[in-house]
């Protein structure tokens, strides 16, 4: 053995002389401990299989974390799409409802106008017939006008159906032109 030991700077420094057997044993024990640590470090660096397993476990953990993150992102994207589709559906529903109300108002207005025109036409026919001295046709026209006044629902339904057919025809023509 030599009298030199490794210093803190990595160089060698002269060993302080042991002043007794106990101090010498202590120095030997410290040297063995340092040597054991160095051997363990070298063994760990030389253990390629163990380092590869540790690296593989590390990569598995990272892949698992990334999978969780991707699933979370996909779920969030799904929720955003669902919200947008729901919002668009509500907008379409509102527009259709509004268009339905407008069509109903137009049909109702057209029905009232038709009823008023029929009433005027009936009165005109009645007046013309009474001037000419024909009372039989007047009574038939009078009964039709009276029936329309007392039961306007069938007339309104017929007018609504006619308006729906006109609207469908216009929509069909528009879709064909596009």
TrEMBL record:
Residues 1-24, 78-140 are annotated as: Disordered. The keyword Transmembrane helix applies. Pfam families: DUF3618. The chain crosses the membrane at residues 155-172. Residues 80-119 have a biased composition (Basic and acidic residues). Keywords: Membrane, Transmembrane, Transmembrane helix. It comes from the Bacteria. The keyword Transit peptide does not apply. This is DUF3618 domain-containing protein. It comes from Streptomyces thermoalcalitolerans.
């Amino acid at each position: 053995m030599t009298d030199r030991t490794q210093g803190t700077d990595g160089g060698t420094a002269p060993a302080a002389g042991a002043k007794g057997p106990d101090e010498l044993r202590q120095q030997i024990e410290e040297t063995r401990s340092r040597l054991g640590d160095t051997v363990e470090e070298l063994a760990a660096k030389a253990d390629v299989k163990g380092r590869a397993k540790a690296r593989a476990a590390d990569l598995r953990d990272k892949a698992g974390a990334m999978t969780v993150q991707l699933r979370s992102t996909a779920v969030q994207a799904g929720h955003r799409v669902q919200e947008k589709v729901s919002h668009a559906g509500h907008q379409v529903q509102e527009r259709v409802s509004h268009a339905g109300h407008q069509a109903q108002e137009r049909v109702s207005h057209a029905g009232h106008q038709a009823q008023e025109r029929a009433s005027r036409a009936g009165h005109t026919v009645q007046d013309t017939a009474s001037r000419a001295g024909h009372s039989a046709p007047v009574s038939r026209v009078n009964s039709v006008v009276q029936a329309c006044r007392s039961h306007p629902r069938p007339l309104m339904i017929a007018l609504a159906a006619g308006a729906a057919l006109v609207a469908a025809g216009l929509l069909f023509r528009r879709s064909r032109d596009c």
